[in-house]
Write a structure and sequence with these properties.
The chain is of the alpha+beta class. The chain has a domain of 94 residues. It contains 4 helices and 8 strands. A 4-stranded antiparallel beta sheet has the order 1-6-7-8, with no helix packed on it. A hairpin with an 8-residue loop joins β2 and β3. The protein starts with a helix and ends in an 8-residue tail after the last strand.
Length: 155
């Protein structure tokens, strides 16, 4: 009977690769909803304000953003996740910075950031401090690494 149950579970796909995580792909150009969030956050970002004093120039890098919605903490409210492109000056040998924004009231606030080398990542089932681990790809050979939330920031 145990063998029959195992065969039945395999046929259903329980324990298959699909259960090992949820792949999220960045959208570029941004959808109108993602663009609205990006404009509200990035046009007031201290880093961009420092380098691009003119608000018109500050808006230019927004065309180089990839974005996605994903609920990484299972609170029913998806986080807005943006991958910055070369125009932001945050790309290096491990990839480009990815910023995770969480909606707090009516505003989107920075939850944290991590580096990612390609335009997708995987949300893993495991959690740390209530947030799913993220399988990210970085470096020139796109090595996979796990991003973990410590309660304050991503590592």
């Amino acid at each position: 009977m145990g063998f029959a149950l195992l065969v039945w579970l395999c046929l259903l796909g329980v324990g298959s690769a699909e259960d090992s995580g949820h792949q999220v792909r960045f959208i570029k150009p941004l959808t109108p909803e993602l663009l609205q969030i990006a404009e509200a956050y990035y046009l007031n970002d201290p880093y961009l304000t420092k380098w691009y004093q003119d608000i018109e120039k500050r808006a230019i890098p927004l065309d180089d953003l990839g974005g996605a919605f994903a609920d990484i903490d299972d609170d029913g409210q998806p986080e807005a996740i943006f991958q910055e492109g070369q125009d932001f000056g945050t790309c290096g040998t491990v990839g480009c910075e990815v910023r995770v924004l969480k909606k707090v009231g009516n505003q989107w606030r920075l939850m944290g950031s991590f580096d990612d080398g390609i335009a997708d990542f995987t949300i893993l089932p495991e959690k740390d401090h209530g947030v799913h681990r993220i399988l990210s790809y970085s470096g020139h050979d796109n090595r996979a690494g796990t991003v973990i939330w410590d309660g304050r920031e991503f590592h």
